[in-house]
Amino acid sequence: MTVAATPAPSFSIPLLTLAMALTTAHAAPPGAADRAALETGTDAIFAQWNRGDTPGCGVAVYRDDALVFQRGYGMASLELGVPIGPDSVFDIGSTSKQFTAASVLLLAQDGKLSLDDDIRTHLPEMPDYGRRITIRQLLQHSSGLRDYIALLVLGGAAFDDQATDAQTLDVLARQRALNFPPGSEHLYSNSGYFLAGQIVERVSGQSLPAFAQERIFAPLGMHDTRFRRDHAELVPGRAMAYARAEASVDAPPRDGATAYRLDQPHWDQVGDGSVHTTTGDLLRWDRNFYHPKVGTAAMLAQMQQPGVLDDGKRIDYGLGLKMGEYRGLATVRHGGAWGGYRAELLRFPQRHLSVATLCNFAEAQPQRWAERVAELWLGLPPAPAQDRVAARRKPVSLSPTQLQQWTGIYRQADNGELRKIVHADGRLSLQHFDDEFVLRPLGSTEFELSAAAIATVRFHPRTRERPRRMTVTANGRRSDYLAIDVAAPTPTELQAYAGRYRCGELGRDYEFKLAGGTLQQLDPRFPPVALEPLERDRFAQGLLSYRFRRGDDGGVDGVSLDAGRVRDLACARL
């Protein structure tokens, strides 16, 4: 979960830097005493999960082509009492994207396709949007395609349902509009990598799992790695994925222990995710970037070249990999999250050191933990992270009036995402999707997210020129949110929105009714959900916002859905 959407940094990893990474002398390996300290320090990072009654993580450090640390913390199976070990297999979610990108590039290297091909050359069922979408834009998240995961969920699918390639292709082919013109923006979309996987299959004549096995995994000796296309497929050594469960009469907590439930989606798409692997196998893939065995040095450098939008703006995303900087060192990385799985593969090419953190519970923070492990093994002083800054600053006490002035709904200035600030039990909290984070006051306008101390929040009062706003800073990056002037519609005004709306691009209807003084969205699978008013004609339901449209006569004749990676999906009133 990302607390705040952030702009892409301007830095990149030039090819010269990558070449230097292969020849730069490295520090001498640590002695026995130093190594013991490094291992103890790494253990301390994961101490909370190094138990027999919690899920946890597999962690590995690679230095100069060698596996210098590999350990498991917590349980691979809470039901069977199996601990996480060096051979535990994890679903790495979107960390899989680099393998799909590599598959596409291998076909380009074979002369069977070009990254600048129009995707309709290979996927003729996709609509003609008036501007061509290239394979390169699929891989750099600049295609404008709506995210298929959000589309399927909006269409009524649940993660416990089975969802197939055919369903996904069908919903993508039904989309009549894009989020933005191809090449004009960068917005993460799983649709691009799903379609890239489909292109690999049509061009190669093999399934993506078979192609990757033949061209990537087998040549590198990644014997415990696969693309898994069937959620019922048996995966030897697999760590199951978990999320925190609410205690119930049927399943009361035992001895005060945290209750967990399985969090294993039944969706079977490949391309954007579904690679299952181990920390040991990822070393073999990491080594390939320094000593190419699969692909050429030029191909691997291409994966690590930041993309450029049509207006010349550079983004931090290449082909299945993100380029950035941490503590003054260039990084190449990608994270993943699917069901209860969380993953991060972080590489420091100038220092020839990488960290893999693969976890099997939904609250894991593999990105931050990988960074902390890297600090230890790189010999860097502790980072001035938000938790350490906060430790030097004592919280202050604010009156209810001082706290309540900041409550309300805020919209992100760039992408329209919503955050809500609420006051309850004498404290402020930030609500984001289904998560809630307590805000610890550091001053009258400055607060810290107390959970893991991963961000600070600063409020700015309304001025003549600007509305009240909130600035969220996470990992050194800032995002601004503007306060919304929330409408207070009367029951008569709410009744004007009630009715059924046909969403052809989703293959379903949305129905709204007035009940108990609120506008509610009806779904036969779930209890009615009360919508929260925003501005006039706008309502929110978690991450989803509805914008009711009016015709020439002023009456409501449609509604548009916005869900972050799906923008302005129009539904007509029946």
Any chance you could write out the topology, listing elements then pairs?
Elements lengths: L14 H9 L8 H14 L11 E7 L2 E8 L1 E3 L4 E2 L6 E2 L5 H13 L25 H5 L8 H7 L10 H9 L16 H15 L3 H10 L8 E2 L14 E3 L15 E3 L12 E3 L1 H10 L8 H7 L18 E5 L2 E10 L2 E8 L4 E7 L6 H13 L7 H6 L8 H5 L3 E5 L5 E7 L2 E6 L2 E7 L4 E4 L5 E6 L8 E6 L2 E7 L7 H5 L3 E5 L4 E8 L2 E6 L2 E5 L1 E2 L4 E4 L2 E7 L5 E7 L6 E5 L1
Antiparallel strand pairs: 1-2, 1-13, 3-4, 5-9, 6-9, 7-8, 10-11, 11-12, 12-13, 14-15, 14-21, 15-16, 16-17, 17-18, 18-19, 19-20, 20-21, 22-23, 22-30, 23-24, 24-25, 26-27, 27-28, 28-29, 29-30
Commentary on this structure:
With about 575 residues, this protein is of the alpha+beta class. Helices cover about 20% and strands about 30% of the residues. The chain is built from 14 helices and 30 strands. The protein has a nine-stranded antiparallel beta sheet. Strands 14-15-16-17-18-19-20-21 form an eight-stranded antiparallel beta barrel. It has a six-stranded antiparallel beta sheet with strand order 2-1-13-12-11-10, with helices on both faces. Helix 2 (about 30-45) packs antiparallel against helix 11 (about 365-380), helix 3 (about 95-110) runs parallel beside helix 7 (about 190-205) and helix 3 crosses helix 8 (about 210-215). About 40% of the residues are buried.
